[in-house]
């Protein structure tokens, strides 16, 4: 099956946003987690490394999921492949 230019554009945008969000996930999970002890300062009365590990990363993960779902719904509607309710 040959993909049309509209399909190729859809997948290019899908792969681009997936790559960006995966890079953000990697940064929050590994880079900030690795350097958290070096970034140890008081943040709302808690050590920053604890806050990042316990709360900050989880908040970022939820925001990533929310943004991806919203972005893909808009992209699906733009390209006419949305699942209508």
UniProtKB/TrEMBL annotation:
Domain of life: Bacteria
KW Transmembrane (keyword) present: yes
Location of the Sodium symporter small subunit domain: 8-81
Residue spans crossing the bilayer: 15-36, 48-69
Keyword line: Membrane, Transmembrane, Transmembrane helix
Official protein name in the record: DUF4212 domain-containing protein
Lineage, top ranks: Bacteria, Pseudomonadati, Pseudomonadota, Betaproteobacteria, Burkholderiales
């Amino acid at each position: 099956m040959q993909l049309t230019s509209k399909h190729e554009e859809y997948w290019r945008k899908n792969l681009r946003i997936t790559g960006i969000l995966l890079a953000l996930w990697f940064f929050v999970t590994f880079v900030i987690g690795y350097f958290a002890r070096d970034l140890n300062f008081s943040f709302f009365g808690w050590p920053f490394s604890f806050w990042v590990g316990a709360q900050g990363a989880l908040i970022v993960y939820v925001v990533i999921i929310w943004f991806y779902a919203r972005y893909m719904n808009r992209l699906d509607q733009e390209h006419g492949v949305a699942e209508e309710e």
